[in-house]
Design brief:
Layout: E1 35-42, H1 50-63, E2 68-72, H2 80-84, E3 97-98, E4 100-101, E5 107-109, H3 126-138, E6 140-141, E7 145-151, H4 158-166, E8 171-176, H5 180-195, E9 200-205, E10 210-211, E11 218-219, H6 227-234, E12 239-241, H7 246-253, H8 266-273
Parallel strand pairs: 1-7, 1-8, 2-5, 2-7, 3-6, 8-9, 9-12
Antiparallel strand pairs: 4-5, 10-11
Helix pairs in contact: 3-4
Length: 274
């Protein structure tokens, strides 16, 4: 007697003509958009410097001659416009929403560019937030972008899942800090990327060390670096260690993060470009 088909092809070892294809949830970008590659910047928890890393990577790529865009997918905690000194509100065309340009010409879309008052909170449930991020892909016009960086909200919830399923992510960069607790949470982000079949291109350890202004010695303020250990365990090809540098905070607060030279990201950028 033939076995009844359960339509669960993932657990079926038979090869049949009716075998179902994996359903795709990918959405088409706006018809006027042109985007060559999308990179997501993720973290397992908040407060590790994910938005800073996104900004520094975007600025680095722009200085390398690429046309760059930043999608600020952290809807309830957007900080990207502030770091670039962008206060202009986004404008709309008849069939889409225009990005706003940073002083150097990086395209940007963020919830803060749509609010009448940037200090107003966005008090929305998860489905509405996820839907808004999806619209940043389908309704925003990204013009001739070589690299689009997505600043993801922390964790592995609704929004990261929506981004991974609806946008063709070419790779992710994971951001962490040296503490043991953060290492455990980062592993969750790495495993999520693996489950979504998206390669992890690099690991950025923020606040990795402080350089003594007197003797030049590197001081590991938050404990010994775990970046190389995590990268080796999960086969992550590139590691960057961002220092605790007052200059970063100074430029970010002044809206001039593009002025910071961040050569430590060179290896990760090479993986992104390649």
């Amino acid at each position: 007697m033939a076995e009844e088909c359960t339509h669960d092809c993932s657990s079926c070892g038979k090869s049949c003509s009716d075998k179902q294809k994996k359903e795709s949830f990918l959405k088409e970008p706006h018809k006027k958009s042109s985007i060559k590659k999308v990179i997501a910047v993720v973290s397992g928890k908040g407060g590790v410097g994910k938005s800073l890393t996104t900004s520094l990577l975007a600025a680095y790529a722009h200085k390398a001659g690429k046309s760059v865009g930043i999608m600020d997918a952290d809807i309830t905690g957007p900080s990207i416009p502030k770091m670039f000194g962008v206060t202009e509100r986004a404008s709309a065309e008849e069939d889409g929403l225009n990005t706003v340009l940073t002083p150097s010409g990086i395209q940007m879309m963020s919830m803060n560019l749509l609010l009448e008052n940037e200090n107003d909170p966005v008090i929305w449930r998860g489905m509405m937030i996820a839907g808004t991020v999806q619209q940043f892909w389908t309704d925003v016009i990204w013009r001739d972008v070589d690299l689009l960086f997505i600043d993801m909200p922390p964790g592995t919830g609704d929004v990261p899942l929506t981004v991974f399923q609806s946008i063709p992510i070419a790779g992710v960069v994971v951001v962490t800090t040296p503490q043991d607790l953060v290492k455990m949470v980062v592993e969750k982000a790495v495993k999520m990327a693996e489950m979504m079949d998206v390669p992890v291109l690099g690991l950025v350890e923020n606040m990795s060390y402080l350089t003594c202004p007197g003797c030049g010695k590197k001081i590991e303020v938050f404990g010994h670096s775990k970046a190389d250990e995590i990268a080796a365990e999960y086969g992550i090809p590139a590691v960057a260690k961002l220092p605790i540098d007052p200059k970063i905070a100074e430029l970010a607060d002044a809206g001039r993060i593009e002025d910071y030279d961040c050569d430590v990201l060179k290896e990760i950028y090479a993986k992104i470009e390649g």
